[in-house]
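User: Teach me something about this protein's shape.
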Amino acid sequence: MASGSGWFGRRRRDTTAADHPDREARPTPAATTDVVRVAGFDGPLPHLDQDVTVLVTTRSDRHAEVARLVAVAREAFGRGADVRAVSYVADASPRDPFGRRLPWVRTVPVDGLGSAINAGLAAGVGRVLVLVDTSVTIDAAGLRALAAADAVAQARVRLPDGALRSGARLLRPGALPWSDDAVPGGAAEDADAVFAADQPVLSTPGAALVPAPCLPDERMTLTAWTRAVADVHGGPVRVVGAATRSVEAGRTVDASTVDAFSAWRDRGPATRDVVAGPPLPPWGARPVTPVRRTTSSATDPLTWSLKIAAPAGPEGDGWGDVHFAAELAGALERLGQRVRIDRRDAHVRDDDASDDVTLVIRGLDRVPPNPASVNLLWVISHPDDVSDTELRSFDAAFAAGPVWAAAAAARSGVPVRTLLQATDPAVFHPGARATTSPDADRVVFVGSTRGAARPVVADAVALGADLRVHGPGWQGVVPDAALGEPSLSRAEVATAYASARVVLNDHWADMAAGGFVSNRVFDVLASGGVVVTDEVAGLTEVLDVPTLAVARSRDELAALLDPARVWPSAAERAAVASRIAAEHSFDARAAVLLDAARTERARLRS
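Assistant: First, the predicted structure itself:
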């Protein structure tokens, strides 16, 4: 994965005496003990009887540039103008001395650009705020043009490589805004109004100011702040005048940054189709670039990418999510969709702009959304690994545990719909039963040791059950008489489930607490089998059938495994299997996901 470019380049400076503040001095490394974050204002922001307040922000190793901008501001607005300067540390930047006769708000740097803005405004502002950073060169006329904009405004900025920055555009709601004006074919975006300002040479109405967010990413700090100010003001964000910039901060997109732009997921349709670039560290969100918009019918087949955590090659072939994804892919294809399955090494592809839908089947890995497509998240396991930020970064989220889904929705502020795991009735059905199977009328468990104790198996052994265990790692863990096959094909698993007297099942603690019912339960029930499982929150509310029983203790398990216990008849089991096949097949789940994909695609493009 490509990483963002570095922060501002550092320059070695000549040593000077402390009593010569007009000369550059060797910087000292920034200490973190007295660098504070200024997250907002102590109270309502005072409104001063000044036409313009100019706030000069400077990274802590660029103090030598402050005097230049203070002079330009006083040329623009008069020697008595309200001009202030604030220093901030970014990327552990070294510290320059604080020069005398400069209008410092404080003589200690603050933590980041957002803190610098908040510290600089805390004493109040005039009718207009003009902000300019020492990385920017602008003349007095340019500052006056910004001050006269009567709106949130930004100058069009040219970087040393010739690139232009003309403010942020929300090409795709819920994704990083775009501000790299070069587009395919060498054209440039040239608009007088944009979504927000994202360069530190801007102006805002003083009465509309709100605190700036303290994000590690400079562009998103400015974008989120100026968009919020524009929302208060009610006017557009304009592009006014021109400036140059010597350096631009690299991107640092963490969870707080993702939350900031995910909040705009419902801010209208996409203005352009986009392609996505490499993930930006540390979170992995992907920047976007506009491309020519394509048209399609609402009922045209969509191209799906199913993202799973299994590694490529034989190492991952036995993973459960490989089978899960393959069966879901088959169901989507039966609905006329085009589907590919991307394992861990292909979560980000060079050609993924061709994907209409990205479905992350969430297990072990967090996968960055692809902003070129609709993004769906289906949490089927390891729910404790899923953060609120991850949920908020998708267009629609589903979870196989209804208890967890409800709690996650309340916590994250976005809907999380219940979508249980599923089975494939073409594989798991009562016809798979074989009276001559070694598993016939025995207690069966299919699964690995998982490198941890599986109490339901240990209890069955302790009870002396007529147990047969299939899967790797059981030798020496269960009696030799209980050992089955180290691996089974899907058809052989179906036969084991349909032929057994009872099939055992268990859950990870977080899965059970969140109501995540194992797909093994659906497979056994669809096979016409009987399943005994550990306790799962809300189980009876989603699966209330006579061939499913819960063992809450070893004594309860003993009663359920008693060979004399009477279970439902073959006809009753077949009826349960028919219901499971109708309500809990991958075909049923695919229909829900396709409807969601089309709904989100229409929302984004309408």
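Now, about its shape. Residues 582 and 588 are 7 Å apart (CA to CA). The chain has 17 helices and 24 strands. If you'd like, I can walk through any region in more detail.
User: That's plenty for now, thanks!
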